[in-house]
């Protein structure tokens, strides 16, 4: 009996030992990536974009993906256009809370909910041309705002291009600021845009970008304002008749990443991300600028009446917007004046 008991103990010990070895081998046969939560050696980055495959934000995201994956085998990047991960608000919130690693979003659209002063880009006629905008964005504006983005939980990687914004409408040709009177214009939901419409004697109507085509089609609003590329790729010429090339503000997109996600990367991986984002932004600006002439021709070919208005009348009507109390609460007048001084150098 004693011998039988000893045999049973020996067998049990052997089984436990084998099970233990099996578990050990199982644990070491897979590498679980802590950043993405997925199996394997790749760090997964999901990039949310609201625009379609041809939109400026998607162009920036795809260029970033190409540059990162070319430089490093550590990453697997997937771009999600067409608001498939939600509108800009949902995408930005997803990045903030870490459910999405990255988004490319309109800089002065939903992001001012966390970094109000990025609405300096909503100050009308701040930049005379693209070169001024690039210089300010990559210089004084980034220096001022990047720490604010980090305080909000974002890593602001770079500013890409949407382009100068122009008014379209379905009612009448706009030759002078007085022609704006009475029009209902879709704008982003922010006091600066409401102040702009008030100064032009037009009505401001906030509508999300992914619902804008339908709003125009159904006559919920008379018009909207966006860069030429956005107007063309979104086919707004199907539901709008008139385009006024007033260039009231320069539109940028922000490439932002969850800050905790970024901070957990190695120094080398962070360098890859930062370098690729800056290079992607430069290349994206070139691509968007080169496409603009073709997009404008497409707009004309599809029947829109394109007008170059008396721009001075618009500048005069909006000259003091940045000093209005409701605007000054968001963007300090001193910051606006700092940018203007910076551009004089």
From TrEMBL:
InterPro entries assigned: DctP_fam (IPR018389), TRAP_DctP (IPR004682), TRAP_DctP_sf (IPR038404)
A Pfam family per the record: DctP
Annotated organism of origin: Anaerosphaera aminiphila DSM 21120
Family: Belongs to the bacterial solute-binding protein 7 family.
Superkingdom, taxonomy of origin: Bacteria
Keyword Cytoplasm (UniProt): no
Origin organism lineage: Bacteria, Bacillati, Bacillota, Tissierellia, Tissierellales
Alphabetical GO biological process terms: transmembrane transport
Record key words, sorted: Receptor, Signal, Transport
GO CC field: outer membrane-bounded periplasmic space
Record's protein name: Tripartite ATP-independent transporter solute receptor, DctP family
């Amino acid at each position: 009996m004693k011998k039988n008991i000893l045999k049973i103990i020996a067998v049990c010990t052997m089984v436990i030992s084998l099970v233990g070895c099996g578990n050990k081998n199982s644990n070491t046969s897979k590498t679980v990536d802590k950043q993405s939560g997925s199996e394997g050696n790749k760090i997964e980055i999901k990039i949310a974009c609201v625009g379609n495959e041809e939109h400026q934000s998607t162009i920036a995201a795809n260029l970033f993906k190409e540059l990162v994956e070319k430089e490093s085998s550590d990453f697997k990047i997937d771009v999600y256009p067409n608001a498939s991960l939600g509108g800009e608000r949902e995408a930005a919130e997803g990045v903030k809370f870490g459910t999405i690693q990255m988004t490319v979003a309109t800089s002065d659209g939903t992001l001012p909910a966390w970094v109000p002063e990025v609405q300096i880009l909503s100050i009308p006629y701040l930049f005379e041309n693209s070169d001024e905008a690039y210089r300010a964005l990559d210089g004084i504006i980034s220096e001022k705002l990047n720490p604010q983005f980090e305080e909000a939980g974002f890593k602001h990687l770079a500013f890409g291009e949407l382009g100068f914004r122009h008014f379209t409408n379905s009612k009448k040709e706009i030759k002078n600021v007085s022609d704006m009177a009475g029009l209902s214009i879709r704008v982003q939901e922010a006091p600066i845009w409401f102040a702009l419409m008030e100064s032009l004697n037009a009505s401001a109507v906030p509508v999300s970008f992914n619902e804008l085509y339908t709003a125009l089609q159904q006559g919920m609003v008379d018009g909207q304002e966006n860069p030429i590329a956005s107007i063309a790729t979104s086919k707004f010429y199907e539901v709008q008749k008139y385009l006024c090339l007033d260039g009231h503000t320069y539109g940028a997109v922000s490439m932002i990443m969850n800050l905790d996600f970024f901070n957990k990367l190695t120094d080398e991986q962070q360098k890859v991300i930062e370098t690729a984002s800056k290079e992607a932004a430069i290349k994206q600006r070139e691509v968007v600028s080169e496409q603009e002439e073709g997009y404008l021709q497409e707009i004309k070919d599809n029947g829109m009446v394109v007008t170059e208005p008396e721009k001075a009348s618009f500048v005069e009507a909006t000259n003091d917007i940045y000093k209005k109390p409701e605007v000054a609460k968001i963007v300090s007048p001193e910051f606006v004046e700092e940018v203007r001084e910076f551009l004089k150098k």
